[in-house]
């Protein structure tokens, strides 16, 4: 179970923030710290507002992820990083297909995490001056009465338009992007890039999985 929680923890953090901010507040994408907290708040409000739809169809969580989270995730950068050494030999079309499949895969992964959300508490670390930095870390603690706390480190990149987007996180020192890159490398070498893209799309199309024990 913890492997699933860790791989989906970005969605869980976006989901489980304090919910004092109303869903129609604008996201300050120029401040990575404020952006993370506001997106968490807005996603939580959306989750509450659409609770009936989610209970009727867990796959609706993919809609919530698509509409609330994905514009704040640098999935293209993360996807090309996840291709690892194979990106050099890939054609432009293959790179684009991989990025699109990776994006869909992330949506399903985050939706799975949200489906298992119960009553975890999230504590965001203090904001710090960004200055001229192009890459920052946002520190978060996941608190659950039934489990030890999880320390999370988000990585965010500054975009060309000066907005910030998340592209990786470390949970208890484990980089999700690095672990996925290693996992994908073996599968690409075994099956070839085109077949792996097909496999990634198949994984992304799977229905949302809910851990009934966690969600109870």
TrEMBL record:
The alphabetical list of record keywords is: Signal
| Span of the signal peptide | 1-23
Alphabetical list of InterPro entries matching this protein: MlaC/ttg2D (IPR008869), Tgt2/MlaC_sf (IPR042245)
Q: Which domain of life is it from?
A: Bacteria
- Under what name is this protein listed? Phospholipid-binding protein MlaC
Species of origin: Shewanella submarina
Q: Print the organism lineage.
A: Bacteria, Pseudomonadati, Pseudomonadota, Gammaproteobacteria, Alteromonadales
């Amino acid at each position: 179970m913890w492997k699933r929680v860790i791989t989906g923890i970005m969605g869980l953090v976006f989901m489980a923030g304090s919910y004092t901010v109303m869903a129609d507040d604008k996201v300050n994408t120029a401040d990575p710290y404020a952006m993370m907290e506001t997106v968490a708040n807005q996603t939580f409000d959306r989750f509450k507002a659409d609770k009936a739809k989610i209970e009727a169809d867990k796959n609706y969580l993919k809609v919530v992820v698509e509409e609330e989270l994905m514009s704040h995730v640098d999935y293209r950068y993360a996807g090309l990083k996840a291709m690892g050494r194979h990106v050099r030999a890939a054609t432009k079309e293959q790179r684009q297909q991989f990025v699109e499949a990776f994006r869909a895969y992330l949506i399903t992964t985050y939706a799975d995490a949200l489906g298992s959300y119960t009553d975890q508490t999230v504590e965001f670390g203090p904001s710090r001056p960004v200055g001229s930095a192009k890459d920052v870390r946002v520190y978060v603690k996941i608190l659950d009465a039934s489990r030890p706390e999880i320390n999370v480190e988000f990585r965010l990149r500054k975009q060309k338009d000066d907005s910030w987007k998340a592209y990786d996180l470390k949970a208890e020192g484990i980089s999700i992007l690095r672990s996925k890159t290693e996992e994908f490398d073996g599968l690409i070498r075994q099956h070839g890039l085109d077949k792996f893209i097909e496999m990634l799309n198949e994984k992304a199309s799977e229905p949302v999985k809910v851990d009934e024990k966690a969600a109870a």
